[in-house]
From TrEMBL:
This is Type IX secretion system PorP/SprF family membrane protein. It comes from Aureibacter tunicatorum. The lineage of its organism: Bacteria, Pseudomonadati, Bacteroidota, Cytophagia, Cytophagales. The keyword Membrane applies. PANTHER family: LIPOPROTEIN YIAD-RELATED, STATOR ELEMENT OF FLAGELLAR MOTOR COMPLEX. It is found in: Cell outer membrane. Pfam families: OmpA, PorP_SprF.
Amino acid sequence: MKHIYKVILILSIMMNYAQAQDINFSGYDKTIGRVNPSAIVSNYAYINAQYRYTGIKADNQLHTYAVSGAYPIRLRRRRLFGTLGFYVLNDQNIGNGKLQKTETEFTFASGYTLSKYSYIATGLNLGYHFQSIDINQYTTGSQYYHGEGFINPRMDVNFDQNDQASYMNLSFGANYTIVDKQYEVKKQFGFSVIHFNQPNMNWSGYNYQFNPIYRFHGLYRVIDKKDWNLSPTYLLSYQNKEMIYTFGTKAKYNLKNFDFTRRKKRAWLEMDLNYRVNREVFLRAGVQFDDLFFGIGHGQPLDQSRNIVSGVTEVHFGYRKFIRKLYYKKKRKKKKKTYTNTIKKTTSYNAEKFDHDKKLPESDVKTESNQVSSVDVEETLNEVTNTEEHVVEEKIPFRKDIQFKIGTAALSQKEVQELKASIDELIDVIVRIEIIGHTDNTGSEPFNYQLGLKRANSVRNQLIDSGIDGSLIEVISKGESSPKFDNNTFEGRIRNRRAELIIYIR
């Protein structure tokens, strides 16, 4: 089964970019929506939940809970599409002192299709942040001073300090993206300005009135095989005269080769490895079954002498659903419809010779009249004479028989390739698809009905993997009841093990 889940970087099910972020209290700040608001643009609706544990030196811990989601929306112009997203987060430490932060953010992003598989997108994020700090004779390694923000983490403070702060923030981003036929990201390059009006809460303690974070990020798929792919990534973050570099790679492997995933439409193993230069190494692994995702990751600081964080561990759950595909249709010349009017006329008469001057008996006249009347009416109705026929030119639906081996519903590699080639040519003009599963007459009738249904669903799953909207597909099983060939012959039984694919096009 062809791999499908192209992990759309813009819509990673875990929402964990696991890359460098400039942070306030912890290293949790790593979702793709916070890297670039425009990156939430996608054809999938999703909901994600994540938990992050951060170990802090001096017997302290930080627990973070976050929920995020997005939903694609239609805009008035056909090539324009949009996405609405939200993000809610709460974290606080357990131990001496108190650091707590709550965030609520809303994002709107819109995209414009440039071609069948590429688009540009822009996004705007508005958020509300509330945070409180209660330090009582305790050194966190990153102390906060009212009006000055966080100072050098190597300085110790041994007096009481309490404060609360809240503010609204605004972020903007744009990106250029190329996706594959499953609408997973193959290439993406973006730029963003995060938190235009963020107060001064940086590591160095510099007091900037205008303190945004500038980010450049990208992904480029360099290996794209049927069963696996590999995509290097980068993220550059600049704030307070400091540049942070992060380089990584994302890899995916198709688990459909294993028996325990046979009943799944999609089964992938995903791995991310990221190196935050001179700061942190982060490794994440996850599995995706159909539209459900589970992942776990761990980050380890590299310079323990200057880092108050001893390590982080993350757990992610996610669910997504395909909503719509990119709309891109070239202008086509309208074909003129041709109409043909056919008028059939028949004349019925008796060609026998007779004397016009000879008067027939009255009884004979009635008989002839009855016979002629009967013939004229009945034959005229049967032959549909004196009618007008309208013949309208239209395209013929695409039809194909897909063969299976005895007792199985698995598609062969040859059938997958042929099916993919056919779908690629018709994907923009498909209106409706019917798939009818058939079997030979070996086996019971209930068994053959179920086998025919499995064969039809196998083709359906392959079509969905190729980018077809599942709502356009109708699946039927006729089992052994409608053989196309003679089931009494060996060759006929082989040819009856099939799924009939009918594609209706406009």
